[in-house]
Amino acid sequence: MVFTSLEFALFFIVVYAAYRVLPHRGQNWLLLVASYYFYGSWDWRFLSLLIGSTLVDFFVARYLGREAEPSRRKRALVLSLVFNLGMLGFFKYFEFFEDSLVRLGRTVGWEFDPFTLDILLPIGISFYTFMTISYVIDVYRREIEPTPHLLDFAVFVAYFPHLVAGPILRASLLLPQIGQPRTITREQIASGIWLIGWGCFQKMFVADNLAPLVDTVFGPSATPTGADVLVATWAFAFQIYGDFAGYSNIARGTSRLMGIELNVNFLFPYFVVSPQEFWRNWHISLSTWLRDYLYIPLGGNRHGSFRTNRNLMITMALGGLWHGAAWTFVIWGLYQGAVLVVARAMQRWAARAGVTIADGLSWSRVVMAFVMFQVTCYGWLIFRARSVDQLAQFTRLLLTDLVPTAATWQSLFIPMATVVAPLLAVHAYQARRRAEEAPMRLPLVARYSLYVGLFYAVLLWGDFEGAQFIYFQF
Fold it and tell me: Which of 112, 131, 334, 401 could bridge 226 with an S-S bond, Cβ 3.0-4.6 Å?
């Protein structure tokens, strides 16, 4: 059941109708039942993992809240981490590490049969395990108090708008909203509908129309030129953005209709001029999670340049592995770490030389944003590559065969530009006003012209087949 399907629309209408007439505690019970039904619609067997993670971390956090002895508290924290990371590691990475071990053995002359298991990846497991881990760590650090209500915590973990692809929410944001009665204003309804509509446009018009262009070049039987690879990589940059930002906006809009605010997950990431700025604007909930629970505990930037660079590389490599069990994701993480390290060195040089980038819409900022987009896109090439061999092949093509052919223009660039242009036009206006909901404040005629244009773009060219979101596989 995906957000852009008719099945979800009917599901939400029924849930929302009941939600509006129930009292607070009744709403929470409804949200829990609806969330378990929503998750179970993919595979009911994995509900046991979701419930197990909920129960373990609820009772571990309660124990941490009343226990004062440091060694006992640390053992309880370790129990939670072992359970959650062990569950995530088994279902997501067992076959990856086993296959890597077999390949490594063969390179040194060791032959052994792998222990084959047919393991399915539970949808959303990377997201809800990170949520419960952060909750237990925050309680362990005494930054928040553990909730005494199992129902509230179960809703926090399983809340269906964010369950399968984020955002990765913090307990300090969501639990208080679950625990208190909620009011729903006309402004929330209006902005919620805008976020849902804009998210559907991003997913159904932008991402789903770019997907065939990308698949044509990255498919197993493709024989592209370097120019084809470049344009397809640009297309994938907007595909994955439209796909994931679209999901996040639909999740935020759906939740806002119920009086619950979710955190912003994307803020115009392709208009940035530095890698640090990119990660402050792309998948914000993951990048802040990695910062707070991995980078800073490793030492952050507190112990000199060498250790700072080491911490960046470790954090981004593990962040890459979080995205998927493949070496291309590890390489992508290492690439992102290396880009951050190089950018830090360049910024120190620029500061000593007195070089600055003007704020606002300046030529220097436009040029830097274009350069940063190309740096980001090579990362997306690594991310999208089907294998390390394909990555190496496409990199060679980029370096040796960048002259576009007529087919490149007609079958790739023009279709891509046609799909991306309206997205960039709206984003430029939003970024100029520094507000996602700036289109809602346009003059009446312009505002409804935009609404009608987006509606017909989705209606005439959108994918209504309920295509899966890319981040469901993570």
Answer: 401
95-153 pLDDT tens trace = 766 666 666 666 666 665 655 555 667 788 888 999 999 999 999 999 999 999 999 99
In angstroms, the CA 125 to CA 109 distance is 36
- Based on DSSP, count helices (H) and strands (E) in the chain, helices before strands: 20, 0
Q: Report CA 72 to chain centroid distance, whole Å.
A: 35
Could you say which residues of the chain have pLDDT below 50? none
Which pLDDT does position 472 carry in this prediction? Answer: 62
Q: Judge if 16 and 104 occupy the same domain.
A: yes
- The structural domain count of the chain equals 2
Q: Any idea of the CA torsion for 112, 115, 118, 124, to the nearest 10 degrees?
A: -100
**Per-residue burial over 117-147, b = 16 or more CB atoms within 10 Å of its CB, e = otherwise:** eeeebbbbbbbbbbbbbbbbbbbbeeebebb
For 271, the 3-state DSSP assignment is helix
Q: Are residues 100 and 229 in the same domain?
A: no
**In the block, which residue shows the tokens 């996602």?**
436
Tell whether 332 is covered by a domain.
Answer: no
Residues 223 and 107 in one domain: no
Cα–Cα nearest to 244, from 199, 307, 186: 199
DSSP letters for 359-401: SSS-HHHHHHHHHHHHHHHHHHHHHH-SSHHHHHHHHHHHHH-
Active site positions, annotated: 323
State the residue range of the domain holding 97.
6-182
Judge if 119 and 205 occupy the same domain: no
Give the domain-ending residue among 141, 161, 182: 182
